[in-house]
Amino acid sequence: MRQYDFDTLVDRSGTDCLKWDIKDGELPMWVADMDFPTAPEIREAIERRAQHGVFGYQIIPDAWYDAYITWWKTRHGMEIQKDWLVFTTGVIPAISSAVRKLTSPAEKVCLMTPVYNTFFNSIVNNGRVPFECPLSYDKDTGYSMDFDALEKALSDPQTSLLLLCNPQNPGGKIWNREELARVGELCKKYGVIVFADEIHCDLTAPGLSYTPFASVSETCRQISITAVSPTKTFNLAGIQTAAFFSANPVLRHKLWRQVNTDEVAEPNAFAVDATVAAFTKGAAWLDELREYLQENKNATVAYLKENLPQLSVVSTDATYLLWIDLSEILRQRADLINQKSDPDLQKSETQIPDARNFVRFLREKTGLFVMYGNVYGKGGDHFMRLNIACPKSMLEDGLARLKAGVEMYLSSESET
Ligand SMILES: Cc1ncc(COP(=O)(O)O)c(C=O)c1O
Fold this sequence. Notes:
By secondary structure, this protein is of the alpha/beta class. It folds into two domains: 27-38 and 283-409, Aspartate Aminotransferase, domain 1 (Alpha-Beta Complex), CATH 3.90.1150.10; 41-281, Aspartate Aminotransferase, domain 2 (3-Layer(aba) Sandwich), CATH 3.40.640. The chain has 14 helices and 15 strands. The protein has helices at residues 40-52, 62-76, 91-102, 118-124, 147-155, 177-189, 218-222, 231-234, 249-261, 271-281, 283-307, 327-341, 356-366, 392-409, and strands at residues 27-28, 85-88, 108-113, 129-134, 136-138, 142-144, 159-165, 193-197, 224-228, 242-245, 312-313, 321-325, 368-369, 371-372, 383-387. The strands form four sheets. A seven-stranded mixed β-sheet has the order 2-10-9-8-7-3-4, with helices on both faces. α3 runs parallel beside α4 (118-124), α3 (91-102) packs across α9 (249-261) and α11 runs parallel beside α14 (392-409). The radius of gyration is 22 Å and the shape is globular. The termini are far apart.
């Protein structure tokens, strides 16, 4: 018997939330926020703060540092020193500041793709160049790092920073100690700084944990900055609260200066209380959430296996985002179109289109709104990303729409 309720549908329409800014009848399963209210313990802390009624400038109290330090020690087995930690309003603001401070215009920032699309914005908006280093993909075993490609990217004299996503979004891969240690050694060899985005680290499958990059070796500790936050885990993205830490005083000082210059170093009136409540009182809620998410993942995989065997879900150990390989249906659709227009064309001559057309079709015909994989960089073209962090009844609705959408897409009558 669960203590917390994840089944009740909460109507988010009319709340000016990004995810539900959609047409009537549409179902959004795209952006990475959850359709669950945050933990009651966190709501209580926010309500207490709201009741106080005075919302002046805020400072960072010891309780904020203690909350991060204790959570990382007890949940992730890592000792973070108080003076390593710096408040920032978000992980992306910290990444953009790091790009500005730690690299020069026109230099390259390495990314292992497919990876969170906003990384590209932080690089390109600042006049730097993304250096995409695709992960190796195997339909049965999922993703792994391609160390030859990585070394090539890091050894480019113009590469000065690596944005590492640990665990990976999308794909849900938890990088292991050996992989992370190798990344650290290669980056050290070529003088590349590592920015480890660990925002998804608490959303691991039940029984699994992640390895903080900075905990792997002295090398990893010294060449890196890590960003963390309670916002993904506890569904608090709109509160805008995060932290970065680094054991390297020079890197830490540089980024601390830059987040201050960029004015993303000060908390709003709810940021501290929400964070402290999350990390001191949210563990039980989180563990039930992880079980619920796992049930949703299992249900999705089972549903697809039975109803849409042409789609394959990349095996995942973390995040609430399923990364689904569409190559088979994209190929079938392309064959269908080509055969119609030119019956003599050989199937082997068919080029598989990317996922954009299917994803647009799905939204238009069924209202299901998901992300197409192209936006996550090289290697993402034939995938879609599905957010399964919602009550089971909503998930069932989404899966039924997906099935209907695929059937229409593959019917010779349909037009796109
Ligand atoms: C890997 C990753 N980093 C950062 C963010 C956003 O972080 P923030 O809202 O703190 O800027 C997301 C949101 O989905 C994400 O997936």
